[in-house]
Amino acid sequence: MHNLLNFLVKHVSWFVFIFYVIISCVLLFNNNPYQQSVYLTSANGVSASVFNLYSSVTSYFNLRQINNELQQRNAALEMQVIDLNKQVDNLKLQFPDTTIQPIVRQYDYVVANVISNSVSQPYNYITIDRGARDGIEPEMGVVDHNGVVGIVNAVGNHSARIISLLNPYMRLSCKVKRNNYFGTMTWDGRSPEYATLQELPKQGRYIKGDTVVTSGYSAVFPEGIIVGYVVGKAQDFNGSFVSLKVKLATNFMQLSTVRAVKNRMKVELKALETKDENKQALEQQKAQESKKKKLEREAAKKAAAAQSNGKEAKKQ
Amino acid sequence: MTKTILQFVVIGILLILAQVICSKILLFGVATPFIFIYLILRLPVYFSKNWTYTIAFVLGFIVDLFGNTMGMNALACTLLAALRQPVYNAYFTRDDDTSNPMPSIAELGIGGYMKYMSTMVLIYCTALFLIQAFSLHNFPLTLLRIVASSALTILLLFGIDSLVSTQREERL
Predict the structure, then answer these.
(1) Which of the 8 DSSP states describes residue B104?
(2) Domain hosting residue B149, numbered range
(3) Residue A20 and residue B78: Cβ atoms within 8 Å?
């Protein structure tokens, strides 16, 4: 004990130094997004391999339940397909002349395994074993077979970090499926099973058991992916809005396989936006040119008038 | 003693205020002066290590607060404070155990002081820009920024030094 104290007293300046360096690093990584992302992509490479090993063992544990859930989901989807086919047949009978055109597929999925996950932290993140090499990009939405999981935040070559829905930084635009009123989903940091849907208009009626789905207003998630179910009564939120307690559809404590949503239209939409800008620039240019031409014409007229005046004067 | 401490505090506040403006300067797109480290350079060489670290960290932290570069200057300053004594010992030998020189032109001679100061400034700029870039991607640009900023800082520090030391001599 005495030796230990002696050691501490002798090297106290080292501890002070290390203490300050750690504080600086914490400040550095928490407040500067660039350093954070570089650190994450390099450090994630190391931690990803460790997590991978861990999850390759533990991923077998929940297989039975996941299998059940998948079968249920499969059954529901099959029923939906049958229903839709019936509707299509009915419509064909009603309108025999129309040909059904194939719909352009807007969204692609990349399937990935969760290799690290937390639900008990104030800010939760998830790591998956697919990265930039597999087509994962920042700001892609992530879902699993039950519902929305989160949004991709930092991407490494073979791993990516997802901001979980259980993170106060995450704000998801959602709507109540029954009446299409939309609000913002946030997590209050308490239970991993519940979140709050805020900024809903007051005039809407919200019933327990209403399904909450993504609104599709951002290009991150397709419209209509299940987020959760309303469980509480509407509470006053900022006067003219109300907030609802929502039970999340996704079971964050047993995440295993997730899908990252790739929006094929994203590039196209961006291109369109820039096109608009180009158009505006062209129009401006045209307007300027026509102005110039007008001025030139007027100048030419004046000159001609002056010349004719001169000629007349000479004649006289 | 009290007078020296007071002097240090006043110089420190002035330097921090000046640094707030200096941090906005980007001469030729590469050079930024870091004059506030003058205070760390001028602390007595065998000053308490813990206090040196603390002063350096707080200085860096305040500059970070103003420059919105959380942690960068604080980390670089702490590293600089740690390397202060080794750099001094590499250039000069301690005459006797009781002496505690305050690095200055009068104390070390212009050549010695120049060596000490340039090394320290170079260390600081290297640390800061490496932390800022945080990768070896585009390293030539980082290197250019380190060299240019060091040169500008050394130039300005000599100016500050002449101001401060003339005042002190007049008072004496």
Answers:
(1) S
(2) 2-93+100-171
(3) yes
B54 neighbourhood in chain A, CB within 8 Å: 16, 20
B78 vs A contacts (CB less than 8 Å):
17, 20-21, 24
Query: Domain count of chain B?
Result: 1
Q: Say yes or no to pLDDT of B170 above 50.
A: no
Residue B171: per-residue pLDDT: 44
Distance from CA of B110 to the nearest CA of A (A): 31
Distance between start and end Cα atoms, chain A: 125
d(CA A192, CA A252): 7
Q: Which range marks the domain in which residue A42 is found?
A: 32-61+107-272
Contacts of A21 in chain B (CB under 8 A): 75, 78-79
- Which residue from B minimizes the CA distance to A41? B135
Report, as ranges of residue numbers, the positions in chain A whose pLDDT lies below 50: 316
Q: Determine, yes or no, domain membership for A180.
A: yes
pLDDT tens, A147-180? 888 998 888 888 888 888 888 888 888 888 888 8
Q: Which residues contact B31 (CB under 8 A, 6 or more apart)?
A: B25, B145, B148, B149, B151, B152
Cα of B70 to nearest chain A Cα, Å: 5
Mutate to test the interface with B, among A10, A18, A19, A20 (most CBs of B within 10 A): A20
| Yes or no, beta carbons of A27 and B64 under 8 Å apart | yes
Q: Which of B70, B75, B135 sits opposite A21 (nearest CB)?
A: B75
Q: Are B77 and B57 contacting, i.e. CB atoms less than 8 angstroms apart?
A: yes
The total of structural domains in chain A comes to: 1
Residue A204: Cβ-neighbour burial (10 angstroms; 0-12, 13-18, 19+) = middle
Q: Can you give the CATH number for the domain in which A44 is found?
A: 2.40.10.340
Q: Is B83 near chain A, with CB under 8 Å?
A: no
Q: The dihedral of CA B67, B72, B78, B79: what is its sign?
A: negative
Q: Is B127 an interface residue toward A (CB < 8 Å)?
A: no
Q: Is A37 on the interface with B (CB under 8 A)?
A: no
Check if the beta carbon of residue A215 is closer than 8 Å to that of residue A195: no
Per-residue pLDDT tens digits for B119-165: 989 999 998 888 888 777 777 888 888 888 898 888 888 888 877 76
Whether residue A130 is contained in a domain is answered as yes
Q: Are B70 and A28 within 8 A, CB to CB?
A: yes
Rounded distance, CA B56 to CA B70, Å? 15
Structure tokens at A204: 């809407």
Res B38 pLDDT > 50: yes
